Amino acid sequence: MASTKRDYYEVLGLSREAPETEIKKAYRRLARDHHPDANPNDPGAEERFKELTEAYEVLSNPQARKAYDTYGHQIPRAGAGSAGSGGDPFGGFQDIFDAFFGDQFGESPFGSFFGGSGMRAPARGNDAEVEVQVTLREAAYEIEREVKVQVVKGCSVCDGAGGTKTRQCGTCGGAGAVRTVRQSLLGQMVSTQACPTCGGRGSIIEVVCDNCRGSGRVSEVETRRIRIPAGIEDGMGIKVSGAGHAGERGAPSGDLYVRVRVEEDPELMRDGDDLIHRMRINFVEAALGTEAEVPTLEGMTAMRVDPGTQPGTTLTLRGEGMPRLRRRGRGDLKVVVDVMVPTRLNAEQRELLKRFEATSGEETYGNGGGESFFDRLRSVFR
Ligand SMILES: [Zn+2]
Ligand SMILES: [Zn+2]
User: Fold this and answer.
1) Which of 241, 248, 213, 214 is nearest to 100 (CA)?
2) Any idea what DSSP says for residue 377?
3) HEC string of 312-342?
C-alpha cells in the first residue's frame, strides 16, 4: 500500500530543498487546478486533490517533514488508530457570515507566523477556499448552498500532538524555548531562541502517530451549508471565520473563503443592480404596437409596446431588477426594444412593401421618435 504512494515532493513538483514558502505556494496553485469542484466531470480529481493535500500537510509541518525526509512513507508505526472525524458539519455558520467585495483571495496575511523573540508560536491554520456557482436568478434571493471543503483538522488519535507517545523535552524542560547568554562588546546579551532539540514544541515524539504521520493534523472533507445573500455579484466572496484549516496545538483555525460565481442569464443581463432585457419585436409590431411577454426574475409579465416604437427604446420596470446587496430595495428592469427587419421576402411581400412605400412619405415617419438612436441606447447604461 505504502509503496504505491507517490513521493510528496514529486506530488507538489518541488525539490527536497524547497523552502516552506515554496511548499505553500505550490500547494495553493495546484489545489486551485485540481479542486474537485473545479473538475466536476473528472472522477480522478478528488483523488489527486487528496494526494496533494496530504503531501502539503506533511511537508508544511517542519516536524512531519523531517520524519518524512528520514523515513519516507514507511514511518515508524504507532498503535493502529481509526481515522478520526469530529465536529458538526453544519455547525457554526449562522452568525459568522460576512460578504466582502473584490478579489481578496491572495496570500493570507496570517499564513503562519512566528513569535518575535525566537520562540515559535503555534501557527494559526491556513485559510481554505472553495468556489460555488449560482445562477443569476438564484443570486436574486438569499439561498443556502452545500459546499464540500477539504480541510486539515486536528488529529483525533493523538489529539494533535503528532505522536501517541511523547515525553517532555529535556533541553528546554517543556518550555519550547531556550535562553542563551553571551558576552559582547556591548555587554551581556540575552536572547531567547526556539529549542533546537524539540523545534519549539516542548515535547519529543517517541512514537509518531500513524493517523497523521506526526503532523498532528489530518485532511478531511467537510460539508458546510453556506448562506448566500440576495444580490451577490460574480466574484464576491463569503468568509466563514474559523472554518478553514486547523491551527497547530491550540492555535485558531484559518478562515474559509467561499467565492461565488454568478452565471450569466440568457435573457437578463446584469448591470449592477439593474437588469437589461433585449425585447425583439418585428417591424410591423413596432409600427402597429403590440403586447409582448417580458421575462422578469419572478416570471413572465406582459408589456404594452406602443405603435411607432423606435429601435433602442427603453421601457423601464421599476423595482424589477436585482436586490441591492445588504441594502433595501431593488434595481430596475430595463427592456430595450430591438426591431427585427425582414431579411428574406417573397415576391408577394416585396410587392406589398413597395405599395406601402409608394403611399408613405416623410409624415409617415415623423421625426423618428425625437431623440437619436444613440441617446436612447445611452439611457440604458446610465
Ligand atoms: Zn495524530
Ligand atoms: Zn525543547
Assistant:
1) 241
2) H
3) CCEEEECCCCCECCCCCCECCEEEEEEEECC
- Phi, psi values for residue 51, rounded to 5°: -60, -45
Ligand 1 centre to CA of 249 (Å) is 12
Q: Looking at the CA of 167, name the nearest ligand.
A: 2
Domain span(s) for CATH 1.10.287.110 in the chain: 1-76
Cell reading at 174: 517543556
What are residue 316's DSSP bridge partners?
334
| Confidence band, pLDDT 50/70/90 cuts, at residue 74 | low
Question: How close is the Cα of 50 to the center of ligand 1, in Å?
Answer: 17
Architecture of domain 1-76: Orthogonal Bundle (1.10)
Q: Which bound ligand lies closest to the C-alpha atom of 79? A: 1
Ligand nearest to the CA of 172: 2
Amino acid identity of 335? V
Q: How far is the CA of 58 from the centre of ligand 1 (A)?
A: 12
CATH class of 77-162+209-262: mainly beta
Give the pLDDT of residue 208.
Answer: 87
Q: What is the pTM of this model?
A: 0.57
The pLDDT assigned to 81 comes to 30
Residue with cell 439593474: 274
Give residue 28's identity as a one-letter amino acid code. R
Does the 269-378 domain belong in CATH 2.60.260.20? yes
